[in-house]
Amino acid sequence: MAKRKDPESRYRKRNIARYLLLLFASLAYALFYGGIFPYTFLYMMLALPVISALHMAIVCYFFRMSERVGERTFVKGECATYHLILQNTSFLYMPYITVHMQLEGQFILKNLRSAHLSLAPFSRREFKYRMPLYFRGRYDIGVNYIEIQDLLGLIKIRLNPFEKKSILVKPRILEQNSKSISAARLSEGEISAGLHETGHNEIKDIREYVYGDSFRKIHWKLTSKLSKPMVKDTRNELDNDIILLLNLNKSGPVNEETLIKEDCLIEEMVSTIYFLLRRNIPVKLCFFKEGPYTFRAASLNEFEGLYQILSEVKFSGDDDFESIYHYFTDTEQNCRLIYVFSVNLDGKMIEASHRIKNKGFDIELYYVDIVGISQDDAEAKNELADLLMKSNIRGYLLTPCVVEIPEEQEEPEKAWESEPVMAWPWKKKREKVNAHEKQA
Questions:
Q1: pLDDT tens across 141-179, in order?
Q2: Which among 68, 96, 300, 103 is positioned nearest to 198, based on CA atoms?
Q3: Sheet strands side by side (includes 337-345)
Q4: Strand runs labelled E in 371-434
């Protein structure tokens, strides 16, 4: 298939051809007819490129651009503000300015697309945008580069901004009031006390207190001697982490529907990690991204590291998740409880879960779609729920929700008109399959 040519490049070639044609005509006119007027016309044609280049050099030197972003880190559902100022401080007119915006910024706000404009002498133009953030991730926003053409349209100069602007949109942390955890995960004393903390038998380290540590672990004698709070890190035989395994394979075409499904899964995973770390239950985040990665967190003060990773992770893999599944379960021998998070649930994943369950692991599956079952087929979903329940595997069917962002009464100034970003019109509440409801 032939590549589509750039229209700007095509226009520039046409301008060059027209200028060369006029230059040849003026040269022939001067040679055949002579006189003041023919040679004046020839000299003007020769001087035009020089004048045009000098004009472009002056306006580029006096051209000013400023970008402002209110903040750099947001939570999904908030709004970012972007302010662009273009200024011509010279006494010359700037007729041909092309502003090329970042493609990721155009995905967030469709109004933020490339445009052609001009600037009068000693003038400025301001563009203000309010960008509702419907999707998590890191996005490059603002100006990618600016092209300024000369008066004849023969050459152009590219101006790059001093700094590329980017924002990080973090997933929401949903409140989880309760969650069933395997009884083998807790000791008898912890169950009777109603506390989910790590063991109290063997001291493996003594360190300074940080926010999120349990007061039950404070080393009071050492605290009184050093005049600062010290904490004991302890361990017992029942210390085993909970594995949270994330499937990063592609879940579908890159569109709003797919992104909402992925965000739904990530938000459930982030909320689960936050719930466990608040109770001092250590977790291990595992995924495969051009290689196996494992990140461990044992207390709430280590939550921010996992939160940052899950905010930027992308579903772009194309690996055999069944092999990845077995790799992490074989590597982490001390972990008996596994939470598997996947946008799509297929037959291979269910068979792998059965085999791993037979090895003595407790498994919970979190998924948004079931491969081969339509979104409205409730009967097939219930049959799958019964199958998981008979295998003693907890299954959670997640329903993506729409982020509602209230619109401001005053519309921001828009440089280029287009349709606003629309969220996918789905339900707002998280649902569970019957298997988990019956077991709970």
A1: 888 899 998 888 888 889 998 888 889 999 999 887 766
A2: 300
A3: 292-297, 283-288, 242-246, 337-345, 362-370, 394-397
A4: 394-397
Q: What span, in angstroms and rounded, lies between the C-alpha atoms of 244 and 297?
A: 11
CATH fold for domain 62-170 = Immunoglobulin-like (2.60.40)
Torsional class of 142: left (φ above 0), alpha (ψ -120 to 50), beta (otherwise): left
Residues 250-288: tens digit of each pLDDT: 888 888 888 889 999 999 999 999 999 988 888 999 998
Neighbours of 171 (CB within 10 A): 24
Cα(114)–Cα(100) distance, integer angstroms: 4
How is domain 183-190+239-439 classified at the CATH fold level? Rossmann fold (3.40.50)
Residue type at position 205: D
74-106 per-position pLDDT tens digit: 999 888 888 999 999 999 999 889 998 887 777
Q: Where are the domains of the chain?
A: 62-170, 183-190+239-439, 202-235
Distance CA 250, CA 331 (A): 24
Please say whether the beta carbons of 376 and 349 come within 8 A. no
Task: Name the CA dihedral angle for 318, 252, 383, 397, rounded to a multiple of 10 degrees.
Answer: 100
Q: φ and ψ at 277, to 5 degrees?
A: -70, -30
Of the candidates 285, 288, 260, the one whose C-alpha atom is nearest the C-alpha of residue 369 is: 260
CA of 335: how far to CAs of 73, 99, 183, 185, 203, in Å?
34, 54, 14, 10, 21
Residues 6+ apart with CB under 8 A from 346: 370, 371, 372
423: closest CA among 399, 404, 398, 408?
A: 404
Q: Are 29 and 41 within 8 A, CB to CB?
A: yes
What distance in Å separates the CA atoms of residue 97 and residue 151, rounded to the nearest whole number? Answer: 11
8 A C-beta contact, residue 244 and residue 311: no
Q: Which amino acid is it at 51? A: I
**Please, which residues have CB within 8 angstroms of residue 268's CB and are 6 or more apart in sequence?**
174, 341, 366, 396, 398, 430
- Please give the backbone phi and psi of residue 18, each rounded to the nearest 5 degrees, phi first: -65, -40
What integer pLDDT is reported at residue 212 of this predicted model? Answer: 64
Give the dihedral of Cα atoms 32, 37, 43, 47; nearest 10 deg.
Answer: -140
Query: Half-sphere exposure of 208 toward its Cβ, with a 13 Å CA cutoff?
Result: 3
